[in-house]
Amino acid sequence: MSIWKTTRFEIDLGEPKVMGIVNVTPDSFSDGGEHDDTRSALRHCEQLLAEGAHILDIGGESTRPGSPAVPLAEEIARVLPLVREAVKLHVPVSVDTYKPEVMAAVLDLGADIVNDIWALRRGSESGGPNAVEVVRRHPSCGICLMHMHRDPQTMQSAPMEGDAVPQVRRFLAQAAQALQAQGVDRSRIVLDPGIGFGKTVAQNYALLARQSELLEAGYPLLVGWSRKSSVGAALQGEGQDNSAPAERVVGSVAAALLAVERGARIVRVHDVRETVQALAVWRRMQAAVRP
Q: Distance between CA 57 and CA 54 in Å, rounded?
C-alpha cells in the first residue's frame, strides 16, 4: 500500500485517486473565466466533490502554451480567498503554483499539497525563501514534481527532441532525489510527467504507452491528460470535431483510464463524474480477475 503524506491527510494510493481541477483564472485553456471569483469557484469545488473527486487542485495562473506569467500579487489575490474556504471542506487541497510566496501563503492557510510545474526550481521574486526552502519549512505538505521542457511561453514553439521517456524519467528521478537530499521524506513526493508541457503529440503518447518506465523511479505518478491538445489530435485523426477542449471529454476519460491501467495513482481531470464512473467499471473488472 502506498501512502501520500500531506499536511492534513495521509492519502491511500492503493486505489487510484481523482484530482478535480479548479481554475480561478480568466484565461485557462479549457475553463478560463468560468470560476474566476471565490463564490463560483467554491461552488465548483463542492460540485466536484459531489461528483466523486478525492482531491481539489486550485490554480490561479494559466500555464497553457504561450500564456503570459501572472504577477505575484494577482495570483495571491485569486488563490488565497478560495483556499481559505476550500480547506474547510475536509478534503485534501492542492495548489497549482510555482511561486514560493504563493506556496508559503497557502500552506500557512492549511493547504495540503504543492503542485509545481517547475518542480521546485524557482526562486522567490521578493528575496524570500525559494520553493525548496518553503516546503522544508512546512515539513508535512505533499509535493508534486512535474517535468516541463522550457517554459509555458516557449515550450510548444520548441518542444523536446528525441525519445522523451528516458529524459523525463531521468529528470523526475533526479528532482525527487535532490529533494530528499534536502531532508524531504520520499512519502511526501509524487511525480508528474507533464503531458503537453514541451512535448510533441507523439512524445506524449510514448509517455503513456511506456509509463511503466517512469514508475521505475519508485514514486507514485500523477498524470494529467484532461482535455489537452494531444487528446484533440487523436480525435481529429478519427474525423471528430475537436475545436473546443470541452468536446474532448470522452477522449480525456479514455486517456485517464489508460494511465491508471498503466500504474498512475492520481489523475488530474476537469470531468470528475465521467472519470469516476470509468474507474468504477475498471475496479469492478479488476476485482473479477483477482483469484
A: 10
Which one of 3.20.20.20, 3.50.30.40, 3.90.1150.10, 3.90.470.20 gives the CATH number of domain 3-289? 3.20.20.20
Whether 17 is catalytic is no
Terminal C-alpha separation, the chain: 19
Q: Which residue is catalytic, options 17, 78, 188, 228?
A: 228
Question: Residue 113 pairs with which residues in a beta bridge?
Answer: 94, 142
The band of 170, judged by pLDDT with boundaries at 50, 70 and 90, is very high
| Distance in angstroms (rounded) separating the CA atoms of residues 178 and 139 | 16
CB 51 within 8 A of CB 76: no
DSSP H stretches of helix in the chain: 38-50, 72-86, 100-108, 131-137, 164-181, 201-209, 211-215, 229-237, 249-261, 272-289
For residue range 37-69, list pLDDT tens digits in order: 889 999 999 999 999 999 999 999 988 777 788
- How many residues appear in the chain? 291
228 is catalytic: yes
From the list 78, 188, 268, 273, the catalytic residue is 268
